[in-house]
Amino acid sequence: MNSIIPPYLEKGDTIAIAAPARSVQYSQIQAAVEFMQAKGLKVYLDPELYAVEHQFAGSEKHRAALFNRLLANKDVKAIWCARGGYGSARMVDLLDFDLLKKHPKWIAGFSDVTVLLSHIAKVCNMSTLHSSMPVFMNEKAGQDFDDVQMAFKSLYASLRGKHTNFDLRENPSINLKNFSGEIVGGNLSVLYSIIGSNSEMDWTGKILFLEDLDEYYYHIDRMLLALKRAGKLKGLKAVLVGSFMSMHDHTIPFGYSAKDIITQHCSEYNYPIIFDLNSGHHLQNIAIPFGVSADFKDGMLTFANP
Fold this sequence. Notes:
By secondary structure, the chain is an alpha/beta fold. Helix content is 31%, strand content 21%.
């Protein structure tokens, strides 16, 4: 069954910023707010967005209540998660996804937000956006600003229904052949953490996207092995691999790179594996519409536009 596609945004529509995980202050998201406003969108900031409880943006009940208000607000056409870190899984079970079914809207973010993207696909059968988040425009300003702008422009384009295509003709790959389907996945560490939970979705017949940051190579192996033993890597259309940034090793090296590990655990299934997409913890972090029909042909990954 094809995923439900929320309405694409028009100029003058409202996008709201939520904080389902770590705390955020206005100074950290100001540049992103101004970017979207300059594009002709209204940006709604709940007065309680800036709550702090330890490293979190308020308690689980507080963060969930704010998110539920945004889900219920029919004038809000998209919810853009301010940042990741850790915390979305602590409040996901307090969210009322019947509100999202009643008022379909785009949910955008990545990294820790992967749990929300997966949960929405599971319980709502609805498309979401794997994309950069507001804090990255401030954190990565300076010499990298052009790359961050590219990430934000791709998100804005996706919100308007003009998804960015990927030219993968020069990307390393194995078992390469044409394929089509819907993309799912996100951050490997988060996907590993939700196995067996209400947020775990069925990947059969899907295109799996993976990325991660700041992990040891043996952790990457352990997580991929767990996914394989749980049957999650069988029956896929293809695997797309984004950035695996800032990986770590021990004095005695593990001996395999992230690319090696993914190849070892997936290649026996003989589906295509394509590496080095500009998505994930990458400065450009091009937005990927999860649940939107994707087609890979002759090295180009394209998405269905309205």
